[in-house]
Specification:
Blueprint lengths: L2 E2 L16 E4 L5 E2 L8 E2 L1 E4 H5 L4 H13 L5 E5 L6 E5 L6 E7 L2 E6 L5 E5 L3 E5 L1 H8 L6 E2 L5 E3 L12 H8 L15 E6 L9 E6 L1 E2 L3 H14 L11
Parallel strand pairs: 1-13
Antiparallel strand pairs: 2-5, 3-4, 6-7, 8-9, 9-10, 10-11, 12-16, 13-15, 14-15
Helix pairs in contact: 3-5
The protein binds zinc ion.
Length: 240
């Protein structure tokens, strides 16, 4: 799935780098009480922007609520067309089981697929598959690849950008402050395609894969899971 690229906080493009930026609100609504009753937040954010955002704490509370609301619970949302409050049933919480909670860190296990979603106020939010979770559990310090999350935007970039490094892309789009340290991180790969190369204003689809920054408390949780349940905790069991 492709998301619009603009960061909700700074309005600059995001590059789709798991662990460095992310999307919220595309499934269960994430309430934005700082905007008013029934308002929601939906779109992408740079994690660096979240870290200095005045609504950071309230936002993480609402993000956690979207994952942990009681199954079948409802929220009141403002309808953008009519301005009226409407009642919407939460869906996401039925799929995610909270398996670890500590101040600033919530880890959820997905029920249907073997994967974990981590919300960490020092980082942002990331999703981990079984192989990466097993490596983290075993204290393997090699980089965990963040995967691809393509985004699309309309900023004009030259055709040679197809061969650019992440540093060149950050320079051209003036995004360096929103990805602190990404340029210097080893093992970053960029995949940039032109959606309409013949047009003057070229839409660009970009995905960047970079090693994930994994907070120590998240490493600690998975190490504990490995100690308690063994390697089976990370095995994918296919349905009959
Ligand atoms: Zn931003």
């Amino acid at each position: 799935m492709m998301y619009e690229s603009e960061c909700l906080i700074c309005k600059q493009a995001t590059l789709g780098v798991p662990g460095w930026d992310g999307a919220v609100g595309h499934r269960d609504p994430v309430l934005a009480p700082w905007e008013g009753e029934g308002e929601t937040v939906e779109g992408r954010m740079h994690f660096a922007c979240v870290q200095t955002w005045s609504h950071k704490d309230a936002f993480f509370n609402e993000l956690a609520a979207a994952y942990t609301g009681a199954p079948g619970s409802t929220v009141e949302l403002r309808d953008a067309r009519t301005g009226q409050l409407v009642t919407v049933r939460r869906e996401t919480a039925e799929e995610y089981l909270p398996v670890h909670t500590e101040p600033g860190c919530l880890i959820l296990a997905e029920q249907t697929v073997k994967s974990w979603t981590v919300l960490d106020t020092d980082l942002g939010w990331i999703r981990l598959g079984p192989r990466d979770a097993a490596r983290i559990a075993a204290d393997d310090r090699d980089p965990v690849e963040g995967g691809w999350a393509p985004v699309e935007f309309d900023r004009d970039v030259p055709l040679e950008a197809a061969d650019w490094s992440v540093g060149q892309l950050l320079d051209h789009l003036d995004l360096e402050p929103h990805y602190p340290g990404l340029r210097e991180t080893p093992g970053v790969a960029v995949d940039l395609d032109f959606v309409a190369p013949d047009m003057t204003l070229r839409a660009v689809q970009v995905a960047v894969r970079a090693p994930l920054l994994v907070p120590e408390r998240v490493r600690g949780y998975f190490a504990g899971l490995l100690a308690a349940e063994g390697a089976d905790a990370f095995k994918v069991v296919l349905p009959d």
